[in-house]
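Quick one: co-fold with guanosine-5'-diphosphate.
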Amino acid sequence: MANVVVVGAQWGDEGKAKITDLLAAEADVVVRCQGGCNAGHTVKHGEDVFKFHLVPSGMLYGDTLCLIGNGTVINPQVLLNEIEALQQKGYATSNLKVSNRAHLTLPFHTDLDQAQESALAEKKIGTTGRGIGPTYMDKVGRYGLRIGDLYEPEAVLRERLTQIVEAKAELLAKCYPHLPTYTVDDLLAWCKPFAEKLAPYVADTVGLVHESLAQNHNILFEGAQGTLLDVDYGTYPFVTSSNATAGGACTGSGVGPTQIDRVIGVMKAYTTRVGEGPFPTELSDDIGRQLLEIGQEFGTTTGRPRRCGWFDAVIAKYSVQVNGLDGLAITKLDVYDGMPELKICVAYRNRETGEQTTQFPSQLRALQHVEPVYETWPGWAGSVKETRQYEDLPVEARNYLSRISALIGCRLSIVSVGPERNQTILLENPISGGKRHLSSPEKVIA
Ligand code: GDP
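Sure, here it is.
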């Protein structure tokens, strides 16, 4: 048995929710560790389809403890809406707990996010406009409001809100005079109903996670966004405001790295990206449009069409490194059904100097100046959607997957061939399969 982190290994939207939901069957606890309602995780269970933004993807199993950790930022209305939607469909919610250390997105955070994005015009980051960046800015700036503060005596909460309002008032008045202003009383009135409604769910989740560790329970740490959106390792500044890489699972939940046994990276069989910023393997031709349509690549949170391109092994290898991946979950293999040939980007070539590299560049400008170096692999006829055993995949599909595994130096654990739970090829179960083992990349068959 093992404690496993599931992270997005590309630019997000890799299908983490499906993989988390699948592995959650073996988990006693599922923890969301970072990000906020800018994340959008689609979980399907029979006829029920949920688009979760905040609650962990393990929520559909009534007996799994689902924690929203201290590294997340919470829009309380969004959380309450998700709880209500689950209750309306008959799912239990008493197994959900949210950290009293998590920060709250206050009304002016959302206003500021949208105002800052429109001020950037052509240079916008492409945020979801949900106030996540400003909430994290205030957390780091030490002007944040934590969920636990809602339950302090009113005089203490009032004092905290006064500090926050005083800090924000000048900025709002000088830089954003068109935005609404909030008094301490406005914010107090905003806090009260949320404090009441959230009370049954608020807990010291650090304590809960350690109780579970002491009982040798299996804990699944669910990442949001993706490695290339990580504030440190991503394509800065076109990134999210938290650590979406595996380290974020520790800082966002209160466990140390020694408690983590496995790290599984979820990647699509191709690459997508939402929002702005460079994307070396982007396809603006018919193949790109085909991936968009067949893969239904539209943002869960915003509905925006995603940019689509070939699999980028430079990115994927970098992801293996910065996350310490020891297992791959490749999703959406079915989207390639019937495609005559598939390309894999194996290196970047600098357009001006001709120099090649397999190292992902740290600077955006360097990434803007590369073109992909491709290998071409034959596609397969027919569909993989009904395949459940690895050996039953067409040889071309196995070779494609094996090549990816070998190129990036990480073993294949899971292949997803459709959105349903059962549309999955499980080469190993990272949780019940046990503790860390040396990874052995796949061999190409032919
Ligand atoms: P996440 O945020 O990483 O969980 O990804 P999203 O939920 O935003 O997007 C993944 C989408 O792909 C969802 O609509 C899933 O139902 C769907 N999906 C996941 N795995 C597969 C797969 O193997 N094949 C297909 N066709 N769809 C998949």
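If it helps, The first helix runs from residue 16 to 23.
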